[in-house]
Amino acid sequence: MDGKEETGGEMERRARHRPRRRFPEAKRIIVACELERCVHCGSTLVNRDTWHARKYVQTLQGPVFVAGRSKECANSACAHRGVHYYAGGVRLISLPHSTYGLDVLAYIGWQHEHAQQQLVEIQRSLNARGVAINERNVGKLYRQFLALLRGMDAQKQERLREGARRYGGIIWAMDALQPEGCGTLLYVLYEVLSGTVVSALEVSSPTAMELAEWVRPWQGLGLRVLATLSDGEKAIVQALCECWPEAPHQQCQLHFLGDVAEPGLAYDRRLRQGLGDQLGGLPRVPEQTLAPTPLESTSPSAVPPFGDATRCRVGGDREASAPIDSRCGQP
Length: 331
Fold this sequence. Notes:
This protein is of the alpha/beta class and 331 residues long. It has a domain at 89-257: 2-Layer Sandwich (Nucleotidyltransferase, domain 5). The protein has helices at residues 102-113, 119-128, 135-150, 154-167, 208-215, 234-243, 253-279, and strands at 4-7, 10-13, 27-32, 45-59, 62-73, 84-85, 170-177, 185-191, 196-203, 225-230, 249-251, 309-314, 318-323. It has a five-stranded mixed beta sheet. Strands 3, 4, 5 and 6 form a four-stranded mixed beta sheet that branches. A two-stranded antiparallel sheet has the order 1-2. β7 and β8 (185-191) form a beta hairpin. α1 (102-113) crosses α3 (135-150), α2 (119-128) crosses α3 and α5 (208-215) packs across α6.
């Protein structure tokens, strides 16, 4: 039988052929929804307790645990109170239903298109970098890379229109990444509210005009654009503002908080290095302390009366002055 075998009259389930990969020591990345206010009533959005799209993702820098934290409108009178606003920034780490990072996707595309490497060679290279992947999945990710470069299709358009009907409009976002070993950048255009990755562009140091020409075809969708979002790169900001000048622009919170925390992280690294240099010569603290040994036995005549102080051995290697309780034999 498929997946089962009979032993002794009982059915025993076999292990899964492709078990889900887990990385307990993986870095945790919790991405919050980028929006602060409801797009319908303008009230403040509050975080929901549950996560969405949580998964382990293998990147070129190692595995990470990624989860998105959605929000909902705090206004009880809002007609769209039950609508959940998801964290679109999760799409900047990996595609939906994929456990490999976008940097792995871009790396595969670059190595196959520009370095002229075969899929099996790319697989061996990724395995050497700690990415668990087989040749079949390398081919699948390469096809996803080509699909991103191809851009919009009917299915994506319908997903965008459904998101616009649900949220009252769409929010365009653009980001760029450059995996190690790749000579060009991979620019990704996605829609925040529906979490739809629309297209990708592989180019080196593009100008604002080039990026604007790339995203201009999506101006004609006839959908209301609520806002645009980026990591703050000048060329991206100019391109988005040129294509949708009436939509307000906002910097991605994930990138914004990373930029704010960078000076503190640099100071923390220097502080830890300085402490290591100054305290590195000290002996290590033992992980487990030794229990004190029992007091040395004495004859009954030598035991002092209750409450008197005497000299006793503590731990077998040092002396201390302490009263001894004759009822329990301990200080």
